Amino acid sequence: MTSAEHNTTRSPSVPVRGGLAVVVAVLTNVVLVLGVDALGIAPAFRALTIPPVAFLSALGAGGATVVYWLLSRYMTDADRIFVRVAAGVLLLSFVPDVALLAIDPAATPLAVVVLMVMHVVVAAVSVWVLVSWRAEQ
To answer: How far apart are the C-alpha atoms of 76 and 45, rounded to whole Å?
Structure first.
C-alpha cells in the first residue's frame, strides 16, 4: 500500500443515519405496543395503538434528523449541542403525556409511563444513530 492509498472510513450521511433512526425507533416502539397489548395494559387507550405510535415515532426521529442536520451545518460543536437539545425536547415531551391523565379517561399511570418510555426510545435511538454512530466510525 502506498502513501496515496489509505483506508478511510466515511460515516454514512445524515439522511442515511436519520432514516435508520426512524426505522429503528418505529420498530422498537411498535414492539413495545405489541407487548403492551399482550399484557392488556390500558386496552381502550388509543395513544397506545400502532398507527399513532408509528407515526409519532417517525415524526420524532425525522425531526431530530432535521435538527441535527441544521446544527451540523451552522454550529461548530453540533454533537454536544444536539445532545442537549434532544434532552430538553425529551423532557418537554413528557408534559403532554402527563396531561393525558387529566383529559383521557382511558389513560392510566402505567400507560402514560409506557408512552414516556417510547419517547425515551426515540430520543436515545436518534442520539445514538446520529451522533454516536458517526463518532465511532
So the answer is: 43
Residue matched to cell numbers 403525556: 97
64 occurs within a structural domain: yes
Closest CA to 113 of 58, 39, 59: 39
- Burial of 33 from C-beta contacts in 10 A (0-12 / 13-18 / 19+): buried
Q: Is the pLDDT of residue 3 over 60?
A: no
Please measure the distance between the N-terminal and C-terminal CA atoms of the chain and give it in whole angstroms. 21
The count of structural domains within the chain is 1
pLDDT score at 42: 86
Question: Does residue 3 lie within any of the structural domains?
Answer: no
Q: Are 83 and 132 in contact (CB under 8 A)?
A: no
Structural domain boundaries enclosing 67: 14-136
DSSP state of 11: P
Question: Residue 49 and residue 52: Cα distance in Å, rounded?
Answer: 6
